[in-house]
Amino acid sequence: MTRLVLILSAGVLIGAPAAAAQRFGDAAAAFDNADTDRDGVITRAEFAASRMARFERMDRNHDGAVSKADFKRLARFRRNTADRLDGLIAQADADHDGKATRAEMMAAPMPIFERADTNGDGGVDKDELAAVRAVLKGAR
Question: Which label site among 19, 78, 93, 119 has the fewest CB atoms less than 10 Å from its CB?
């Protein structure tokens, strides 16, 4: 458990405490929505599909990429949220052009999933998920 806390804190949440708590909330939501077959185990494929569904919702102008162009007013009115968006884009933006395409998102690593899957079996079971939720809840 301590190792998970350290890994999540260092690897996923670099930045100010308020931004870190918001990102923990994002991670919790990602897991909450991923178990589509409701069998209590979130597989890598379920997590990837959930991430792509989120990508589709974020691609507001339907150009096949997520960028600041999808959230023009966000930077003016919600700077913290815009900063979080920049961070999400940067994680997947392999060619560093300021946008994350579908292909880049599909190829991007899933560090939060890797860290949650502590036994390395390719799925996050209820015990691993409970440990992640406890860490995430404690960070808020």
Answer: 119
